[in-house]
Write a structure and sequence with these properties.
7-stranded parallel β-sheet; alpha/beta
Length: 447
């Protein structure tokens, strides 16, 4: 087969590709940096003639042109697998909604869905000599979406890193319906600029001292996991491995510091495994065509069986707040959606099942409101409407700047006491009073 000839036959303009979308369609818009650009702009120009178009995507890293049309709520709905700031703003305007699911379930969901994509549109790396378009940093669930989509449109970006995997990291030209050559925008960057706070560093120090040589790491998104990564890069730890949902800049720093070689991994030995990557140009340059890195579908990276197969697995994730029963909310501020379930619960469960494994939920003990009030992140009970990401039965280690406690298996009164012990001192007495009212405080407890 002459792949270059086939490429020419399938090459269309963005405007032609945009005509594939009709009213009532379900349209898959990729994931993070794979969100289309040229076709998105062309589709936005004709959105006013369409109604009830349902888009699926997640963690938008720029505002799509379809969001900028007049009255988007009259023409489209954005269904997000994991929300960021752009999607939260769209939600406040009435056309963006979170689709709750464990991230690890996405590939199966697509393959069994009653509403498969009518059209799948996303950016890819240029075709290789074997006719494959690489999904770049987002193997995630894109292969499953393509399997079920009626029409597949790839938008080629010369700047998209080619991310080596092993399976489901790309699509063959024979399965593609249309090819668009876009304007080759730079790959969108995320984070990498905010310096760690003193609280971040205090929490990081408490976690890093629990990590042994040869451990396998998973870092969530946010300041604290990145602070942990920075501290690991400066530590004496060695022979570390990586198996994570999201590959972030901190891993690059750790690897370049000579701490990562994957030699102790029970599976995927020598490789840094991830479902998607988002960060700065430093990260994209590092993972580009790097055989040490392994781009894999999320139903593999986040599968509890994969995680638990790795000895000394260390899972490090953030929380928005928690209560005295040990329920963790990592998704919302009351009823206001912030992000999504992601893979936090999978890693909390998988890490505990790992031989020598530990999972850490970390957060600052307090936050300051816009009007300057100091508020505790540790609450008697979660606020109405708050989402329980990790149930009280699942949490292993809880870490704040005031200490770390192992909550696994504790009775309610023990757990309550442990949680209050890492709360901000200004709030401990009040939390004890609340605990007494809820009958989860023993008289013999420390004060």
């Amino acid at each position: 087969m002459d792949y270059n000839q086939l490429y020419s036959q399938k090459l269309v303009t963005a405007e032609e590709a945009a005509k594939a979308v009709s009213s009532g369609n379900w349209v898959d818009y990729g994931w993070t940096v794979n969100t289309p650009v040229a076709v998105d702009a062309a589709l936005a120009k004709r959105m006013n003639e369409l109604t009830d178009v349902n888009f699926r995507g997640g963690i938008l890293m720029w505002v799509p042109e379809i969001f900028k049309i007049d009255n988007p709520v009259e023409h489209l709905t954005w269904n997000s697998w994991h929300m960021g700031g752009i999607e939260r703003k769209a939600a406040s305007q009435g056309f963006s909604f979170y689709a709750p699911i464990r991230y690890s379930e996405l590939p199966r969901y697509y393959r069994e869905s009653q509403t498969p994509p009518d059209v799948a549109i996303f950016q890819v790396a240029p075709m290789d000599s074997h006719g494959y378009f690489n999904f770049g940093p987002s193997a995630s669930h894109l292969a499953a979406a393509c399997e079920m989509a009626k029409t597949i449109i790839v938008e080629v970006n010369q700047n998209m890193p080619r991310c080596i995997g092993g399976f489901e990291e790309g699509i063959h030209i024979s399965k593609v319906d249309m090819i668009v050559e876009g304007d080759n925008p730079s790959i969108a960057e995320m984070g990498g600029s905010s310096a760690a706070t003193e609280v971040d560093e205090a929490v990081a120090k408490l976690i890093v001292e629990e990590i042994p040589d040869g451990a396998c790491l998973q870092l969530g998104i946010g300041g604290m996991p990145n602070a942990v990564g920075s501290l690991i890069a400066k530590s004496d730890l060695k022979n570390l491995g990586v198996h994570t949902e999201m590959y972030v800049d901190a891993f690059v720093d750790i690897a370049k510091a000579g701490k990562i070689n994957g030699s102790m991994k029970n599976i995927d030995k020598g490789r840094q495994t991830y479902a998607f990557a988002a960060g700065t140009k430093k990260l994209y340059d590092y993972i580009d065509d790097n055989p040490e890195c392994m781009s894999a579908p999320v139903d593999y990276t986040n599968d509890i069986r994969s995680i638990s197969a790795l000895d000394n697995f260390m899972s490090i994730n953030n929380a928005v707040n928690l209560d005295l029963f040990g329920q963790i909310n990592a998704e919302s501020a009351g009823t206001k959606n912030i992000s999504g379930a992601g893979g936090q619960l999978d890693f909390v469960l998988g890490a505990y099942l790992s031989k020598g494994g530990k999972s850490f939920i970390c957060c600052s003990s307090t936050f300051t409101t816009k009007d300057g009030q100091l508020k505790s992140r540790i609450l008697p009970t979660l606020e109405p409407g708050s989402i329980v990401t990790d149930t009280r039965a699942n949490v292993h280690y809880l870490v704040t700047e005031y200490g770390k406690v192992n909550l696994k298996g504790l009775s309610s009164w023990q757990k309550c006491e442990a949680i209050i012990s890492v709360a901000h001192p200004d709030f401990r007495d009040e939390l004890i009073k609340d605990a007494e009212k809820m009958n989860i405080w023993k008289r013999s407890n420390k004060r």
